[in-house]
Design brief:
The protein is an alpha+beta fold. It contains 25 helices and 32 strands. Helix content is 34%, strand content 22%. The strands form 9 sheets. A 6-stranded antiparallel β-barrel has the order 7-8-14-13-10-15. It has a 4-stranded parallel sheet with strand order 2-1-5-6, with helices on both faces. A 4-stranded antiparallel sheet has the order 21-22-23-24.
């Protein structure tokens, strides 16, 4: 009997069926150990010794693997086919060696690029040893990320209160978003005019031609800069006669793109389907691990973390056969297509992302997959099959026309395209963002019959004014594309990087655009001012290149760390003498458009408008930055620093409380005020005064007595429920507007609903909420929304919806899902990581299963000792699973 170790329990079950009774397949559930989230886990003074920690759940799994290996003939390490998978295999092997259970047994590494019977059996027949350079690259990357995060983040906490963290890739990605915002703020719009003529052929067909030259001079785009020039040229065209100089019809071929890589899949899923990067990877993970297709669990796509753009020869053959069967002979090119990547630092060790079987068309799988799974699978299938199809054939016609007005001449051009043969477009057309050219080649429309030397009749001259627009904000898709172009980070980490920026409140997403928040811009400005080198794009890309060279066996990983640490540590030490006044002066200059927005009256935006003599400046408080007057406390003007308010009228208007009237019940005054965290309503004075922040979307200038009374009077009693007789009330809480009845909450759609919803509608909303989830148990425990399977220590793991949102439950351990996490999309690996982290934080007196470390972990946990007692940090422990 041989033991096979994979990462996922879902894969373990499927692969065991393929291999048969001679194998025992066990799951590691992702990483089995990690660096503790505290100082001293990487020791530069001891040549970067790394002290690993094993949590309780992983220790139990490793104990099971060790027991199985003891009585086995050999061990196959079959974790995922990427750097992280290689690292997990290395960790498992290292721990088994320390447990002394191998005793000379054969140990081999195998990788499955797809979870199909053929792929699994082929891999088992061709094992190899662990790739040591690949492991070295993982160790170097892990050490670098740790050293940057656990040395740079404390500097931020000391010098920039309110900042959460910094990271080697995270901070550079944030800089991209913030730099784009600065471009937008600095942008000065310029006027330009476009002129065109609506013309008619002798056959009566109309078409439009654009002005491209005048008096023998070419007019580049936006060359006509004012209305006076536009008027002069329009007069020329109005009185001109028109004749066709030349007509050229040129055939153009458009070739298909390669199959998806990790980053191009994330980009296409964002543009075509509206998926976030993390959602795309969650769905792809499930498609890779396998879906029940008519009683058999089958992997539907190849491994989804890859830079490769080429398909295996047998996959190319299968795609060509499917093209012949489903599209016809004309759509099959004479020879197969081969692709190579253009991305910087790309690793092409694996196949591109493709279907495991091209004959499993989306229509055949539709009944087995949920809505999001089929949409993503269809995208992958179409792109994969299109990559081997014939080119699209497009005819592009260009007509050059001369306008002659008494010897004064101008040139016009009409361009049209028509698809003569759709080729690969029959299977797949990509959607572009930010006004990029479409993929079908028909953006110019089709021209009527036009012949050289024939005269055209003028119908109308169009003269339109335009203004240049600033560059668009990044979307997740365009940011990923830019990061890949620059060689920043790895495609497999992009989803996690973007999630971190959102979780830290450094960026928000509005209409799929990434908007840097004030906190994120402060962090970026600080790092650019005092750690310039470490947020430079070239430096980060160069470091990625060194990591790739380590994985290729060309560089020593310890030497790369030594070279990095020498300069980085010196930079950290220099900041110890950095005074807060120096930080504020630098940030005031770097963020001037944000801190000191222009005033409509043209006055100096750095002078306090309340006292007229004080200078405005950034101030740092316990909860972050704000703008205040230098004459404090004589002048108590403050203003919240926000990327959204864009001006300071709000702060000026609310520097002194604005009286709105008197509460008729209490007799206390209602006032509108501004605090460090924005405008709010206050009733009364002193410690007992009641306060209510303005809801999102409410502007201070729109607040009157009625709105203030409605807000300060929340929660609002709506009426008694007709069945229970208990009061239903509405209010605004941490998670938005809500209804409350008998201890249960139901969300309302808008803030306005809080003040207007009636009893009938409230009862309906509460009933709809109750019908979305099964009933509750005898003690009020929410019933399960989803069952994930059994915990390695026994007992079911379920997803439930509680009073404060969805959470994972195992026994007496409840772990809240991260903000924005879809409860239907969580995997058992993610659930185990959340449960492990929650259990490790349980206070004394909790059930035994909720304690941090069982005895089984004691031996391995001893490896976390440090040479000197390091100062603990408050950084959040990383999840143990890399999935999702």
């Amino acid at each position: 009997m041989n033991v096979v170790v994979v990462e996922s329990p879902a894969k373990a079950k499927t692969i065991n069926k393929y291999l048969g009774s001679g194998y025992k397949v066990l799951a590691s559930f992702g990483h089995v150990r990690d660096l503790p989230a505290k100082d001293g886990s990487v020791l530069p003074d001891q040549d970067f010794e790394m002290l690993w920690e094993v949590d309780g759940a992983s220790a139990k799994r490793m104990k099971d693997i060790a027991e199985a290996v003891k009585s086995s003939d050999g061990l196959f390490l079959a974790t995922d086919p990427d750097r992280e998978g290689e690292a997990i295999s290395w960790h498992v092997l290292d721990m088994l060696n320390k447990k002394r259970v191998l005793n000379g047994k054969s140990v081999k590494r195998v990788v499955f690029n797809a979870i199909t019977k053929k792929a699994v059996l082929d891999a088992m027949a061709d094992p190899r040893d662990i790739d040591v350079p690949l492991v070295d690259a993982y160790l170097a990357r892990r050490a670098l990320d740790y050293l940057v995060g656990f040395n740079l983040s404390p500097v931020l906490w000391r010098k920039l209160p309110g900042a959460r963290s910094a990271g080697r890739v995270q901070s550079v990605a944030l800089r991209l978003v913030c730099d784009r915002e600065s471009e937008i703020e600095r942008f000065i719009s310029e006027e330009y005019w476009n002129l065109s003529a609506l013309l008619k052929t002798p056959r009566g067909d109309e078409f439009e031609a654009r002005l491209v030259s005048a008096n023998g001079k070419r007019l580049p785009p936006r060359a006509i800069g004012n209305g006076e020039d536009a008027g002069r040229l329009k007069a020329l065209l109005e009185g001109a006669s028109y004749i066709v100089d030349t007509v050229e019809a040129k055939p153009v071929k458009r070739n298909p793109g390669p199959p998806f890589t990790t980053s191009t899949l994330q980009q296409a899923a964002s543009s075509n389907l509206g998926f976030s990067a993390s959602r795309t990877m969650q769905i792809a993970q499930k498609l890779y691990e396998g879906v029940d297709i008519g009683g058999e669990t089958v992997g539907l796509i190849t491994y989804m973390r890859t830079d490769g753009v080429q398909m295996a020869p047998e996959a190319i053959d299968a795609a060509r056969r499917a093209i012949l069967d489903q599209f016809g002979e004309r759509y099959l090119p004479e020879k197969a297509r081969f692709y190579s990547t253009k991305a910087k630092n790309a690793q092409e060790a694996h196949e591109a992302i493709r279907p495991t079987d091209f004959y499993r068309s989306p229509d055949r799988l539709r009944k087995f997959l949920d809505a999001d799974q089929i949409r993503l699978y269809e995208l992958i299938w179409k792109r994969g099959i299109a990559s081997q199809m014939a080119s699209a054939e497009i005819e592009r016609t260009t007509a050059e026309i001369t306008a002659d007005n008494k010897g004064e001449k101008a040139g016009l051009r009409a361009v049209g395209s028509v698809i003569r043969f759709d080729g690969f477009i029959a299977a797949y057309t990509d959607q572009k963002e930010d006004g990029e050219q479409s993929d079908d080649g028909d953006e110019d429309g089709r021209l009527p019959e036009i012949n050289a030397r024939e005269t055209l009749a003028k119908q109308k001259i169009n003269s339109t004014q335009h203004f240049t627009e600033p560059p668009p904000r990044y979307s997740e898709a365009s940011l990923i594309k830019k990061m890949e172009e620059l060689g920043i980070g790895r495609p497999s980490t992009y989803a996690a990087t973007l999630a971190t920026l959102r979780d830290r409140d450094y960026v928000t997403i509005d209409k799929r655009k990434l908007i840097p928040q004030a906190k994120g811009r402060l962090v970026t400005a600080f790092l650019e001012s005092f750690f310039t080198k470490y947020v430079e794009y070239d430096f980060t890309a160069d470091l990625e290149e060194k990591l790739d060279r380590i994985s290729a066996g060309e560089l020593n990983w310890k030497q790369v760390l030594r070279d990095f640490w020498k300069d980085f540590f010196a930079q950290i030490e220099d900041t110890k003498e950095l005074r807060v006044t120096n930080v504020l002066d630098s940030l005031n200059e770097a963020l001037a458009p944000l801190v000191f927005p222009k005033r409509e009256d043209g006055s100096d935006p750095r002078i306090c408008q309340v006292c007229g003599t004080g200078n405005l400046s950034l101030k740092l408080g316990k909860y972050g930055a704000f703008v205040g007057c230098s004459n404090y406390p004589e002048c108590n003007y403050t203003r919240q620093l926000s990327s959204e308010n864009g001006g300071e009228a709000e702060g000026v208007a609310l520097n002194e409380p604005k009286n709105l009237g008197t509460d008729p019940t209490t007799g206390e005054e209602l006032t509108l005020r501004s605090g460090r965290f924005g405008p709010y309503i206050q009733r009364g004075d002193g410690k007992e005064a009641k306060r209510a922040s303005l809801p999102k979307g409410w502007k201070p200038e729109d607040i009157d007595y009625e709105k203030a009374m409605a807000l300060i009077s929340l929660p609002r009693d709506i009426g008694k429920h007709p069945e229970t007789g208990k009061m239903i009330s509405s209010g605004i809480g941490r998670y938005g507007p809500f209804l409350l009845h008998d201890g249960s909450y139901a969300n309302l759609d808008t803030v306005e609903d809080v003040f207007s919803v009636g009893l009938n509608r409230a009862v309906t909303v509460i009933a709809e909420k109750a019908n979305k989830a099964p009933g509750r148990g005898a003690r009020g425990t929410p019933a399960a929304l989803k069952s994930l399977g059994d915990h390695p220590d026994g007992g079911a793991i379920t997803v439930r919806d509680g009073k404060y949102g969805p959470y994972v439950n195992w026994g007496k351990v409840n772990a809240t899902l991260p903000k924005g996490k879809d409860p239907q999309a969580i995997t058992i690996e993610e659930a185990l990581a959340l449960i492990t982290e929650k259990a490790g934080k349980a206070p004394a007196g909790k059930p035994a299963r909720a304690k941090a470390k069982p005895k089984a972990a004691a031996t391995e946990a001893k490896t976390t000792k440090t040479a000197a007692k390091p100062k603990a940090t408050k950084a959040k422990a990383p999840a143990k699973s890399k999935k999702g």
